[in-house]
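Notebook p. 47: complex prediction with iron/sulfur cluster.
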Amino acid sequence: MSSQATAATQEEARKQLEEKILADHDRLGPDDRFQFACHPGVACFNHCCSDVNIFLSPYDVLRMRKNLGMGSTEFLEKHTLLPIQKDMRTPVVVLRMGDDESRNCPFVTEAGCGIYHDRPWPCRMYPLGMAAQKDTPDGWRGERFYFLMKEDGCLGCDQARQWTVRDWLADQGVEEYDVWGEAFKELALHEFFENGGTLSPEKMEMFYAACYDLDRFRRFVFNTTLLEKFDVDEDLVEEMRYSDEALLRFGFLWLRFSLFGENTMKVRPDAAEAARESLEKRTLQNRKRTAATGGVR
Ligand code: SF4
Ligand code: SF4
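Predicted complex, structure tokens below:
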């Protein structure tokens, strides 16, 4: 199947999912209300923290591993899976459940989530789901809406506590995650993919490192000639040495430049000159070689 056909199939699947969500769930706006409470007094407490697929964004991984005091490579190896699918555009990272029969999340404790302050976005949002209609002039940044997802066996929606969508999102600290999520979507849903573009295995690796494996990406930034070639603000360079947030911000810019050719990085004039000279030298050498062989290759 061509990459264009794959993109069309994915687009069709996305539309079908959106239609299903709209058909099965009421659409909620920021001021719409719903009932929900989750606490140790609810009979199903902790039941939803096992055998569940939780997709992790780069910012989810950053927050979770910092909570645990783990390096990115160690966290990714120990706590995540990278399911490979044939038509995958970018790496997909999923939280690894326990290997035992109950398949508990490794962070669940009797008192609830053991990394509550840094739990991932899907765990914050529940029982709300979010979708954005893509077929608007703004593309994926078009109208965003919410819907109530009631999982089987979840008794939280029977509790009397009332929320507006707006209050729930504020209470769960979703806003910060959304800012990072939007920046990530600009990469993962880039029009390069819509137009049938695909990433080579090397570029997939770069995407994975710059988004998720920040320890490895930091080595790439500081142990190669990258900072000699590009004009990067000195304060940002210093910040990136210790701040993962700064490094992730830079990683998103780097990927937009290196994968999609966007103007998000500035080449240093001396590096541009050196690249031009090197290109001229190579072109000259090729011409000489061609002349020496009489044009026969
Ligand atoms: S199933 Fe619902 S109420 Fe029960 S612990 Fe999970 S979110 Fe809370
Ligand atoms: S991260 Fe926390 S809230 Fe999310 S599934 Fe694991 S224990 Fe539950």
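Notes: Confidence is low (pLDDT under 50) at residues 1-7. The longest strand covers residues 128-132.
Next step: compare against the earlier run before touching the bench.
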